[in-house]
Amino acid sequence: MKLPHWDAPPEALTLVRRLVFATWFLRVALKPLHQLALVPSSLFEPVGVMALVPAPLEHLLHRAAVLYALKALTLLAIALVIAGVALRPSMVAASVLMTLYASMWRGFAGHIDHESMLILFAGYLLTLFALADAWADRHGVGSPPGGPTRSGRPLTAIMIMLCLAYTMVGLFRTVRGTPEVYTSGSLTFWAFRNAYETAEPAWGWGKYVLQYPLLGRMLNGGFPFITLFEVTALTALFSRWYRYAFLAVMVPFHIVSLFVLDVFFWENMVLYVLFFELGRRAEIGHRAPEAPILAPQ
Amino acid sequence: MAEPSTVARPTWPAARQWSFDGPLVAALVPLWALTVTAAHLTSQGFGKPRALLLIEGLIYLALYAGLLTFAPVRAWIRAIPAPHRAVLAAFVMLATWGQLVVDSRTTFPFPAWTMYARPEPRSLLEYYRYRGVDVRGHEVWVDPAHELTFVNSAEIASRVKYIGRPATAPTPGPRRDEARARVRDLLAAIAAGYNRSHPDAPLRSLEFVHYTMDYRNQTQAGNPESVVQIDIPEGPAR
Known about the structure:
- The structure holds two protein chains of two kinds.
- Chain A is an all-alpha fold.
- Chain A has one domain (about 10-275).
- Chain A has helices at about 10-30, 55-60, 65-85, 85-105, 115-140, 150-175, 180-185, 185-195, 215-230, 240-260, 265-270.
- In chain A, helix 1 packs across helix 5 and helix 3 runs antiparallel to helix 4 (about 85-105).
- Chain A starts with 9 loop residues before the first helix and ends in a 26-residue tail after the last helix.
- By secondary structure, chain B is of the alpha+beta class.
- In chain B, about 50% of the residues lie in helices and about 15% in strands.
- Chain B has nine helices and five strands.
- The longest helix of chain B is centred in the last third of the chain and has 24 residues, at about 175-195.
- The two termini of chain B are about 50 Å apart.
- Chains A and B meet through helix 4, helix 5, helix 6 and helix 8 of A and helix 3, helix 4, helix 5, helix 6 and strand 1 of B.
C-alpha cells in the first residue's frame, strides 16, 4: 500500500498547480478590494501579521490607488504561475501578495471565513515544496529509487492538509460540543439565523427548517454522520473506497450547505481532484527521468 | 484518471502495517511540545494553562503518533527529502497551533477549524436591516452585501453582529456609545457604496434597524427598533 500520488507524473503537478492558482486568480479578480477604501478604520481589525503594520502604513494600504495596484500585481504574479513563467519566483510573489490580499479583506470581515483557506494552503505547499526541490537539488538530496516522485510529494502533502483540516473540524466539535451540539437543535437555529442575518441570502432555505420539520430532522440527523466523516477524514490517505465514500457524503453536504446554511466551500471541492490518482510515472522499476518542476510546460 | 496498479508497490505483512516507531515518535514529541507551548503563550501569555488546550493538544499528539505507526505513512515520510519533511512538519505544527489557540484573527493564515461546533440553543434571533431615503424621498431597503462586495454577506453579517449587540444594549454607557459610533461609520460606508452605484438617486439618510424574532414560533418578538440614523450631505460620491 502506498499513499496517493506516490507515482504522480509531472503532468499531474502541472494540472493541480494550474487549478489552485486559477482558483486564486478568480478569488482576486472577482473581489473589488478597492471598496475597502470606503471602510473607516474604526471598522477595520487587522488579522495575522497585518496587526504589526504601523498605522501610517496601514492607512496608506487602504487608499483605493494602492488597493488597485495590489490587485493588479497579485493577478500578474498568479497569471505568471499559471503560464509557467519564472515559476519559482512567481509562486513566491503570488503567495506573499495573496496573503496580503486575503489579510486586507478579512480585516473588515467579522469572522475568518474558512471557505478559501485550504486552497490558500495548497498554494503555499506547492510553493514551499518547489523551494524545497531547489534546495534538495543544490545539496544533492533526493528520494530513494522508487520513492515518491518529485511531482507527487506536494500533491500528497496537500491531501494530508486537506484531510487534517476536516479532522480538526470534527475533533473540535466532538470535544467542545458533544452531545449538546446535536441535541440542542443548534444546527436548525444556525440555518434559520443564516437565512435572516443577511438581507438577501443566496438561497435562504434555512427559513423553512421549522415550517417543514422533515428538513430540520434531516439536518439534525445528518449532523453526527457528517462529523464522523470529518473526524475520520485522514483515512482517505489509506483507502480508495473511503475516498469514494467521503466524496459521496461531502459533495452533497457542501451543496446542501449552500442552500440551507448559505455557505459554500467550492474551493475545497476544487481540491477533491486530489482524491483521484492523476496518472503515474511512465514505468515503475525503470524510472523515466522526471521532468524538473521548472521545465517549460 | 486511474488508480495506480499494484506493480512495484511496497508491501508490508498485515501484522507490520501498524507498528510503533520509537525514533519517529521521539522526533515528534519535541515538535508537539513546542506547538502546545506556543499555543499557550499566544492565547494565555504567562497565565495558567487551559485544560482544554492541553486535552486537545494530547488528542493531536495521539493522532499524529497514530498516523506514524502506520507503515505506508512512515514509508512516505522517510522517502521524501529532508527539506520537504521540514516543510510539512512546520505546516502541520502551524495548523495545530492555530487550532489550539482558537483566535483565527491572531493566527491567520492558520485559523482554528471550529465551524458549527459550539451549541447555541437560543430562542431569540436578532438581525439588522438598513432603511434609506433617497434624494427623491423614496424609501429604499439597502443590502450592504450589494454595496460592499469585497466581502461576502456572512462576513458583513458577523461584523455587524459584533457592533450591533452592544449598540442595542438597553442601558446607556460608554460601550454602547462606542458601538453606536461604529454603526454610524458603517452606515456612512454603506451609503458611500450605495451612492456610487446609484448616482441618479443617492441616499439622503440611512437608518440601522434592529429586529428580534422568536425562533420557536417565528413571530417578531418586539417592534423593529431604529438604533442609529445618519443624514448624508449632498456631494460627490467618495
